[in-house]
Amino acid sequence: MSSSRLFDTVSECLSLAQSDSHEAQLKALQTLASITKVSPQNRTLLAQTDGAIPTLATLTNASSPIIQTISLLILFNLSLNPDLKQSLADMETIHYLNSLISPSSSLDSCKLASSLICSLAMLDKNKAKFGVAGTVQFLVHAIESSRDSDSHHLLSSLAELVQFHGNCTLAVRAGAVPVLLGVVQNTDNEDLAGTSLTVLGLLARFNEGLNGLKKTDKIISSMLSVLKGRSLLSKEGAADILLRLFDDSEDCVTEALMLPEFSTVLADISVRGSARVRDKAELLMRKMAKLHFWNQVSGPSIWAWTVVGLWADLYSGVIPPARWAVYIEEAQLGSG
Description:
single chain; mainly alpha; 22 helices
């Protein structure tokens, strides 16, 4: 299609998209979705056409679910061009998107709105805009009441936004820590649990998120439950969180030491997990060994003093990583 013909087609479709005829609107939007699906040049042409983006943004709030969905799809197509992300993220469009990430919206509209937020938020300059518009709070509340089928898109958007410190603060204040831990504990979907732990790990990079995790009752036990599961993504996320907690608080290390199963699980992962999980498990064990546990453990129990000596041997390399699980299990049996 020639440039002049393409320009005429885009202009005609935009005009029909604003008509009172549902059939004409639908056909016009389907054409725009088709021509922007693959071609970056076509996306730029549509975005630069006068009134195109405001028209499409308004249609995302249409009463017809199919009109909503296709309008969102076109805007998502446009967002695939890096140079269009900033102009697409105007406050009016963001407010429309906020209204669509709720249980009352259709599943397709919620997924596309979340995907569009995630795409636009990949431009760092846009992250603060979404924070100002309240998108972070909308996402947290949507995740809390969402269905598993659309939670992944919501979590991906939140993961992108909380990489900006200000948005992390907003997420924690909106209750993101208990909401995300709730997803981890209550879903059977390993991908959702793993993504939730990834977001928690991002929150833990900043003091607000880390403090929120430290204040959570039995957080070490909760992460232990994750480490005992099957998902490697979840195990890696839990290990990241534990590393943050151990670096920040000796009380967290002490709590872990008081759970005899904790050391066994770590040792097992350090041998049988993926390369990344093994490295993190080994680092956790070395951090525990490096601390003076005899000053942290209350009471001169046989198990406590056995662990102190064992950790010292592990940390110094006397016991090779491949034998950690065996030695710890033997120490536990001996202490019984």
